[in-house]
Amino acid sequence: MFEIETKNLKISEELNRKIDMICRFACVKYEFIPGNIKSVKNTNIAYVKPHILKVKGNDYLILEECEEVFINGYNKKIKLKDLENYLKNN
Questions:
Q1: CA angle 76, 60, 10 (to 5 degrees)
Q2: In the 3-class helix/strand/coil scheme, how is the chain assigned residue by residue?
Q3: Residue ranges of the domains in the chain?
Q4: pLDDT higher than threshold 90 for residue 7
Q5: Can you tell me the distance from the alpha carbon of 10 to that of 2, in angstroms, rounded to the nearest whole number?
């Protein structure tokens, strides 16, 4: 049996401020869930779960220092700078 270790990722103050400002300007209510890293002890196997921004039933996956936001999975993405307009129009 494998033992899984979970380490929570801290949201940077800069990213937290950006997301708050974007959501306020888009006039949407949101929930921001911090990501984490799950690793299998004594192996080199790890999974990084990104931060999740929940707005109007959609999940926006956000990684620190990444300029792209993934929408409801990894198939569709937009630039972080375009997130405000996307939230307003969807």
A1: 130
A2: CCCEEEEECCCCHHHHHHHHHHHHHCCCCCEEECCEEEEECCCCCEEEECEEEEECCEEEEECCCCCEEEECCCCEEEEHHHHHHHHHHC
A3: 4-89
A4: yes
A5: 26
Q: What is the pTM of this model?
A: 0.88
What lies within 8 Å, CB to CB, of 1 at 6+ separation is none
Which residues are within 8 A (CB) of 38 and not within 5 positions of it... i.e. 6 or more apart? 4, 5, 6, 46, 47, 49
Task: Summarize pLDDT for 10-46 with one digit per residue, the tens.
Answer: 999 999 999 999 999 999 999 999 999 999 999 999 9
Rounded-to-integer distance, Cα 29 and Cα 23, Å = 7
